[in-house]
Write a structure and sequence with these properties.
The protein is an alpha/beta fold and about 240 residues long. The chain has 11 helices and 8 strands. An 8-stranded parallel barrel has the order 1-2-3-4-5-6-7-8, surrounded by 8 helices. Helix 6 links the parallel strand 5 and strand 6. About 45% of the residues are buried.
Amino acid sequence: MVKLGVNVDHIATLRQARGEFDPDPILAARLCEQAGCHSIVAHLREDRRHIQDRDIVLLRKTVKTRFNLEMSLDAGIVKVALALKPDQATLVPERRQEITTEGGFDVVRHLKRIKKVGQALSKAGIDVSLFIAPDKKQIDAALSIGIKTIELHTGSYAHAFADRLAVDEFAQIKNMTHYASQRGITVNAGHGLNYENTYAVARIKGMHELNIGHSIMSRAVFVGLKQAVREMMEIIK
């Protein structure tokens, strides 16, 4: 079965709106694990707009499944990751003005820097993943620097699905999943996946894990967090 990683960033977003203490992303992570998810994802952004340093320290101590830290190449963030040693670090591009991560890393353009950071993380015993577009050139570039795990950006597919025009985008994700897995890369996917468009992606041969946050947290407002995770798990199954 394809695994489910739940991103708890948006719990922190709600908390930071008041600058106080609730809701707590640590408690959210615990509830998600109790509901059966396979990993917890959190993005420590350079501007600390949602997840804070204290959050990732506590997540590292309390997550019982697998802790996946999303992070940029910023030297300060890399230093935090090396000290924290999450189970996995997913390298993602980051722009201050964006509302959410808008696309995958251009590995070809940033090859040397990504290689340097990836090697440092790997040396510390951290599994390294790259968040990239479902594109052959990007996969080949990741392969060239020894990356063993990628996360395919599904944002274009999600937007097209909403307009019922997702055939080409889905085919690209499917083909690139096959291409990468045949070359020994573990393939994950995420961004924009929800309760309508996840079913097909979860059934792509070679897909390992789907990382989903916003839609689960949005659903949780109405049905509760555990139920929202369980409903997504049923879709993936």
